[in-house]
Amino acid sequence: MTLKPPPLKNDCFALPAGVNWTPVDTALALLKERLHPVTGIETVVLAHALGRVLAEDVVAQRANPPLPNSAVDGYGFAGGLADGEHVIPLMQGRAAAGLAFEGEVSAGQAIRILTGASLPKGVDTVILEEDVTTDGQAIACRGPLKTGANARRAGEDVEADEVILTAGQKLRPADLALAAATGLSELMVRRSLRVGVLSTGDELVDSGETARPGQIFDANRPMLLSLAAQLGYTPVDLGRVEDDRAVLRARMDSAAQDVDVILTSGGASAGDEDHMSALLRESGAMQEWRIAVKPGRPLALAMWQGVPVFGLPGNPVAAFVCSLVFACPAMSVLAGGNWRAPQGFQLPAGFSKKKKPGRREYLRARIRAGQVEVFQSEGSGRISGLSWGEGLVELGDGAQEIAPGDMVTFYPYESFGL
Ligand SMILES: Nc1nc2c(c(=O)[nH]1)N[C@H]1C(S)=C(S)[C@@H](COP(=O)(O)OP(=O)(O)OC[C@H]3O[C@@H](n4cnc5c(N)ncnc54)[C@H](O)[C@@H]3O)O[C@H]1N2
Ligand code: MOO
């Protein structure tokens, strides 16, 4: 079954009139409000569900555990034990996981029972085998032991018909364990978001090619393609286009037939060779977002034949930071998932920094010895700092003077879904 959601509106990226420098929170709120899922729905078996986005709430088909059972290897009987010594006669037979004891255990008798075995009729309490001596005919043990000790109630984990997973969740190994345990073999998920990645610029060559002096290797494309893959989407390599508007237009036209969202990098600002922003502007649905963020001022958002385009800045650090902060949550929604606000951690700074008001700043950072270290340079072309880093420090929109030991907000890369 394939069910398709309606297309996005052409003006979904329009900014409110009169806003010149859009604060990060306003930009995020607009994306959250305007975007909606663009992917259809399909049914997949659990083996193919990892990383997929749930299309509907999932209800347990049966309880976990389905029947009361033993949490330990030991001996089962009815009722607890009073303080003091006890000798309890043993019934013949045993209860094992998957091999139920069909008889009934009479009051005052015990039965050998193994971990995971359903409790036989007449058993509600289990004593650990380590706490027992036995000659095969009876067990000797010491109380007290509460009624119900070492026994697991039916449904104590999950009741049948309980909602176990909710629409919009991205499925993780633990979620698949829960679905399997509660009797599900297939799930309704969103079709995987197809993320097209395109690099622009005359100066670029692909790694592996020969670079003339003045040419540089395309770093953004491998970065953004692998980012899409790591987020659980289907990366689509749209290649690299020189600063030629006609070629760029043709590439965008064919991409729009094939993908759900396009990430481009380079040519996003307003220079002579910034063909990406010029082309998007021509298309009519271009919104040039001047976001009060560093790095990443020029972020071009547009609809190209109904497909949302994130025109990322060419500087790799800006492209990466803008992807994490803006494209990751936006793509999550396009993919049918929840809007993901990253989970930050308050940690003491291991650095000093004086920051001017007016822009939110993100620094490449990592945690060492309980403190946040930042990369030695804020240069937007310093790719080594992205690789050095394990997350970003966020400095608020206002002026800030940070001294070592002051608390700062650290977002691990993982908090953006990576
Ligand atoms: N006069 C102004 N110049 C610049 C401004 C400005 O406001 N006024 N903003 C600067 C900022 S901030 C950024 S970020 C860049 C953004 O420019 P573009 O998005 O147009 O990007 P390009 O000019 O094409 O490239 C910038 C830089 O990044 C390198 N690059 C591009 N693509 C890749 C790639 N795939 N892999 C590796 N490196 C790439 C490119 O060679 C340039 O060095 O504009 C500033 N200028
Ligand atoms: O986007 Mo630019 O790299 O802010 O520095």
TrEMBL record:
Protein name, entry field: Molybdopterin molybdenumtransferase
InterPro entries linked: MoaB/Mog-like_dom_sf (IPR036425), MoaB/Mog_dom (IPR001453), MoCF_biosynth_CS (IPR008284), MoeA-like (IPR038987), MoeA_C_domain_IV (IPR005111), MoeA_C_domain_IV_sf (IPR036688), MoeA_linker/N (IPR005110), MoeA_linker/N_sf (IPR036135)
MoaB/Mog domain location: 196-333
Keyword field contains Metal-binding: yes
Coiled coil start-end: none
Function: Catalyzes the insertion of molybdate into adenylated molybdopterin with the concomitant release of AMP.
One GO BP: Mo-molybdopterin cofactor biosynthetic process
EC number, UniProt record: 2.10.1.1
NCBIfam families noted in UniProt: Glp_gephyrin, molyb_syn
EC primary class: transferase
A GO MF label: molybdopterin molybdotransferase activity
Involved pathway(s): Cofactor biosynthesis; molybdopterin biosynthesis
Catalytic activity as recorded in UniProt: adenylyl-molybdopterin + molybdate = Mo-molybdopterin + AMP + H(+)
SUPFAM superfamilies found in the cross-reference section: MoeA C-terminal domain-like, MoeA N-terminal region -like, Molybdenum cofactor biosynthesis proteins
Signal peptide: none
Superkingdom in the source lineage: Bacteria
PROSITE patterns documented for this protein: MOCF_BIOSYNTHESIS_2
The entry's keywords: Magnesium, Metal-binding, Molybdenum, Molybdenum cofactor biosynthesis, Transferase
Family: Belongs to the MoeA family.
Obligatory cofactor(s): Mg(2+)
One Gene Ontology term, aspect cellular component: cytosol
